[in-house]
Amino acid sequence: MSERNPLVAGNWKMNGDAASLDTLLDGVLSELSVLALQRCSVLVFPSYVYLGQVANKLRGTIVGVGSQDVDERTQGAVTGGVSAAMVKDVGCEFSLVGHSERRTLFAESDELIAEKFEQCKACGLVPIICVGETLEERRQDRTMEVVTRQLNAVTSRVGLAGFDGAMVAYEPVWAIGTGESATPEQAEDVHAGLRKCLAELDEDLSSRTRILYGGSVTADNAVALFGKENVDGALVGGASLKANSFAEICKAAEES
Ligand code: PGA
To answer: Do residues 113 and 97 touch, judged by C-beta distance below 8 A?
Structure first.
């Protein structure tokens, strides 16, 4: 039995509008009230423009809120930028950094992502650093090399104290939005490898850091994924946009 309580996070990406997200949240809150979760934490990650609305609605509930990204700079002449302090100011406690869609669509480098991670920590946000290999990298047997490089870029910048309290999400790029999840064994292999990598920094830090799996998680595959020792929860995209499937995943985590 691990000391790490499970966590399920919904990454809403660039979906929804004020009305539909409000309805989605009503659904999630009502499903979760039936589950009466004791162990599982639940987070949602709306688009920037709805963060304040969602954070206000969720204040005092069991569901936490985070942003999908932050700017690496603190403030100033950055048209279109959103700082970690702003995200914190509107009521968020978490932020994703280094999601593969940011790495690919916005050409974010390991170094830039490490700077974003550092900004989160400086502003009191809990960062969730996303790592994952492409299909080609997996075929070339380079999965561990890629994910450890992505993780080490952060740990070498912020060090042990700077990393403490953060989370990791392993999201194989080939599994995101494709309907083809990693098998529980594939996920466990990489999660165990990432934990080993953290243990080189510090054993205790490694054993308390939550490592989430992401990539086509559904109500159907969640139980088997969460059955693995080093899978501490999930970062869920598509299935987080429906209250009942998201709640089913939370239930699977609670019972894992
Ligand atoms: P998916 O997305 O669940 O739709 O595959 C996961 C993610 O990108 O975080």
So the answer is: yes
